[in-house]
Amino acid sequence: MAKKQTAGRDHLGKLAPQFAQLNDDVLFGEVWSREERLSARDRSLITIAALFSAGQYPQLKSHLILGKEHGITKQEAVETITQLAFYCGWPKAWSAFPLIQEVYGEEESPTDGVPSNLSVFPVGQPNTAYAQYFIGQSYLAPVSTEQVPVFNVTFEPGCRNNWHIHHAKSGGGQMLICVSGRGWYQEWGREARELHPGDVVNIPAGVKHWHGAASDSWFQHLAVEVPGEGARAEWCEPVTEEEYVKLN
Ligand code: MN
């Protein structure tokens, strides 16, 4: 969501009240906020490009801050300036990179490198608790911790979990609701099924299986833990490189 702007009134309300009103109510209130036409993140990217091109560094810094609020990552900001350098001039990039440093700081985020526009669900944190049962990097975000637990699982390209079984005395099992990218689901002894956003996988309790990303695509699914008596997961062997390569 584009943030409601008061910058015009805050800074220029006294000197140029009509400019301030046009800035806050028309430019931001009516144009920036028309997100059904162009997202706030995209509007930030084109505005950053325009200000960079014009060499408007104080304004560029303000829009790097706004772009960060609209979901642009440090890595994406660096990539943007790197490309723009070819079109607008090398020295401008030298002036712009320090602004990115000021806005984002030195700190590396644990989710640096994860595309910011995968889906509407959060990426969460690196999935360290289960990392031993995964090949590649995955991320886990709780979507619901009440009633029925739901987690958003993000897999980097090539990442998949080991063969595993969701056990339960009654009920139990797992549902996967795919929300982004391309991935795979396979039950033991069966052909793998290719997964796309909107696909739903119903995994009965007791069935040995694995799920994960395609080798060339990020992948996200919601994992719904179906309540069951004595529900627990049993983790087995990894999906071998040979089996996995055959799919992709
Ligand atoms: Mn599973």
From TrEMBL:
GO terms for molecular function: peroxiredoxin activity. InterPro entries: AhpD-like, CMD-like, Cupin_2, HNL-like_cupin, RmlC-like_jellyroll, RmlC_Cupin_sf. Residues 17-101 form the Carboxymuconolactone decarboxylase-like domain. Residues 153-217 form the Cupin type-2 domain. It holds the Pfam family CMD. CDD domains: cupin_HNL-like (cd02233). PANTHER family: BLL4564 PROTEIN, RIBD C-TERMINAL DOMAIN CONTAINING PROTEIN. This is Carboxymuconolactone decarboxylase family protein. The lineage of its organism: Bacteria, Bacillati, Bacillota, Clostridia, Eubacteriales.
